[in-house]
Amino acid sequence: MSVLARPPMPVPVRMPHDAGDGLTTARLVLRRYTLDDLPSLVAINADPEVMRYLGGVMTREQSRAFLDARMLNYYDVHPGFGIWLTTLRETGETVGMHCLNHIHGEPLIQVGYRIERAHWGRGYATEMSLALMLYGFTRKRLELITAITDLDHVVSQRVLTNVGLHRVGDRLFPHPNLVKSGRLAYFECHRAAWLGHFAAGLDPEGIPA
Question: How many CB atoms lie within 10 A of CB 36?
Answer without folding.
Answer: 7
